[in-house]
Write a structure and sequence with these properties.
about 375 residues; 7-stranded parallel sheet; 4-stranded antiparallel sheet; TIM Barrel; alpha/beta
Length: about 375
């Protein structure tokens, strides 16, 4: 059974020769070690063995966001002025939105040795900022999805893996406009106003999801953002309001065209697991074990495993810090719990990946152990 067949059969709930093993963001395709760009951490030689391992041995799930002709991917960019400059080796970006005499500002920074973007100043910092943002013209939906990158990636992968369409939900776009402290206060105390913000983004995302699902039927999707409403950030009843109500139409559109909708929700999911299932999704990740999460994989498998493919159960920090003998125990536990009893399928996967320029030898050994254990399972 080749790697693509293994993943497709897992999504369809059919028997496979062994559980797939995916390295999440590390896929051996998108990393470009020969690219000398100062912000490309994968140019460090320490990453080369892992990139090759992912390319040659992992069941590759390559994520792709979909752009639209005539529509910018970031709804803020459609109404913002954007300036980028470099200082002390870092790349700084400033976005500003002018509304009369009122100015909204966002500042981000990317450092060359860390594969992430830090938000130093969030666009919205108060109820007044939110009201100002909502008074601006809502982004319009136009154009058609540009599916060419997906088709090319699928062709390049051949029988080694699949493409997964990557899509934020309305909560992701809304919550990301604030720092976490301000977001949680406004989401709790200004619920009617926050719903208006969610509605603003939902109108575009629902149309985009429908258009993409129709143009690219039958694919795996990842919907990210639900974790913003998971405990302890918000109480479970608001998860229903801010996630279930807005993500269910996305799930339904994806699956109406034969796709597989996977919800991405870090953290403590025990109290919201039934709500996640109520969206109708057929996949869930990253299923973090305690103490990062609050539920064992065996419980999730028993509760929703017949509906959902379960992805994950390995914590990213364990890859970097646990001795390989200890990490192997976690791999085996995840495999045993993820495949026990009746269920749709399980994909062994970490919750994220290292993001520093130098990959430690310990992390590499732990990735190698994932492949070794799964291939013998």
């Amino acid at each position: 059974m080749n790697r693509r067949e293994r993943l497709v059969r897992t999504m369809q709930g059919e028997p496979v020769d062994r559980p797939p093993v995916c390295f999440y963001e590390i896929n051996g395709y998108d990393e470009q070690p020969e690219d000398s760009d100062s912000f490309n951490i994968f140019s460090d030689p320490s990453w080369k063995p892992l990139i090759e391992l992912a390319r040659d041995c992992s069941d590759r799930i390559v994520m792709r966001g979909i752009l639209f002709h005539n529509t910018l991917p970031d709804p803020v960019d459609q109404i913002a002025s954007v300036k980028t400059y470099y200082k002390d080796g870092s790349r700084h970006t400033i976005k500003t939105i002018q509304s009369g005499n009122y100015l909204l500002t966002e500042r981000t920074r990317q450092d060359p040795d860390v594969n992430t973007v830090w938000t130093e100043e969030h666009l919205l910092k108060s109820v007044e900022d939110l009201e100002t943002f909502l008074s601006l013209p809502a982004p319009s939906f136009s154009g058609i999805p540009d599916i060419a990158p997906v088709i090319k990636t699928e062709h390049d992968l051949g029988d080694t893996g699949i493409v997964m369409i990557d899509m934020p939900d309305p909560l992701c776009l809304a919550a990301g406009l604030f720092n976490m402290a301000e977001y949680t206060v406004i989401a709790l105390m200004e619920q009617a106003l926050f719903h208006k913000l969610l509605d603003r983004f939902a109108m575009t995302l629902w149309h985009q999801t429908e258009a993409i699902a129709k143009a690219l039927p039958g694919r795996l999707w990842r919907i990210f953002g639900p974790e913003y409403a998971s405990p302890p950030f918000l109480p479970p009843h608001l998860f229903k309001e801010y996630v279930v109500a807005y993500d269910t139409p996305m799930v339904e559109a994806i699956q109406r065209f034969g796709g597989f909708a996977r919800l991405h929700c870090h953290g403590k999911i025990k109290s919201i697991l039934d709500d996640i299932a109520s969206t109708g999704c057929t996949g869930l990740d990253p299923l973090e074990p305690p103490p990062q999460g609050d539920v064992q994989l065996s419980f999730v498998r028993e509760r929703v495993g017949k509906q959902m493919i379960l992805f994950g159960n390995l914590e990213a920090c364990d890859i970097e810090r646990l001795p390989t003998s200890e990490f192997e125990k976690k791999i085996r536990t995840a495999l045993e719990e993820g495949t026990a009893g009746e269920g749709r399928g399980f994909v062994l996967m970490p919750s994220a990946c290292p993001y520093g320029r130098h990959l430690s030898s310990l992390a590499l050994k732990n990735y190698e152990k994932m492949i070794e254990v799964v291939e013998k399972y």
